[in-house]
Design a protein that fits this description.
Layout lengths: L5 E5 L6 H10 L3 E7 L3 H11 L3 E3 L2 H5 L6 E3 L13
Length: 85
């Protein structure tokens, strides 16, 4: 049984993503679908640069995308995002 690749989203345009993008693109089990930024123009430029199909101009927009299976949050461990029920 063949499973579809997991769709990944990058929850920022942080520099550390550079270490994750090549392995995601090389794997047959993952598909880098989206990147998000607080700015639509930054998200679009980042997506173009790294050949990422979707760009979200807010973090909330990407979190609401039903096609994303896995989100990589490159924030430091001391940073906190608000959790919503």
């Amino acid at each position: 049984m063949t499973q579809r690749p997991l769709n990944w989203g990058l929850l920022s345009t942080a520099r550390i993503n550079r270490a994750l993008i090549p392995p995601l693109n090389a794997s047959k089990r993952t598909y880098l679908l989206s990147a998000a930024s607080r700015s639509e123009s930054i998200a679009q430029a980042y997506a173009r640069k790294w050949n990422i199909p979707r760009a979200h101009g807010s973090y909330e927009s990407m979190l609401a995308d039903p096609d994303i299976d896995v989100i990589y949050n490159p924030l430091p461990g001391t940073a906190r995002l608000p959790l919503h029920a």
